[in-house]
Amino acid sequence: xxxxxxxxxxxxxxxxxxxxxxxxxxxxxxxxxxxxxxxxxxxxxxxxxxxxxxxxxxxxxxxxxxxxxxxxxxxxxxxxxxxxxxxxxxxxxxxxxxxxxxxxxxxxxxxxxxxxxxxxxxxxxxxxxxxxxxxxxxxxxxxxxxxxxxxxxxxxxxxxxxxxxxxxxxxxxxxxxxxxxxxxxxxxxxxxxxxxxxxx
Length: 200
Hints:
Order of helices and strands: HHHEEHEEHE
Shape: elongated
Radius of gyration: 43 Å
Structural class: alpha+beta
CATH superfamily of the largest domain: Ribosomal protein S6/Translation elongation factor EF1B
Number of domains: 2
Oligomer: single chain
CATH topology of the largest domain: Alpha-Beta Plaits
């Protein structure tokens, strides 16, 4: 068997070293690197959770915030005392009904009946409920609704019924039939009987 030359010996040694390095990287280094990365990720997660716990305000801070909110609430309640939301006073009711009547007259509608229906509550306010029956044109009724919407006082409308009405002489209500589709250009020429709930 021939002796290896010096160059060939160096080549064999280099091949052995490379093979050993490859085996080391494959068997030892890469698994350790994966474990290290997983450990770093877990550590970062724990650090994030600890930082989140540190971000929670202390009991003293929470107590101070609660006291400030209570003061704000007391101030708002004090302001609410000076806002008139009561509609139960007889004088107030008379004034509001008078304003509604003026809006009806200004809109050209005729009041056929106004019937008190007691009180009703919607959870926030207690309302005085009335059933109001009117006679007049459709666009005049829309004008009346616009006037109601512009009122500064709390006003609410309930069930609204529109019927064509044939007003006969000497009859306050006339014979009414159910409203059907009326062309807009003709609707103002029709006399409507309008029944609705009015809450004031």
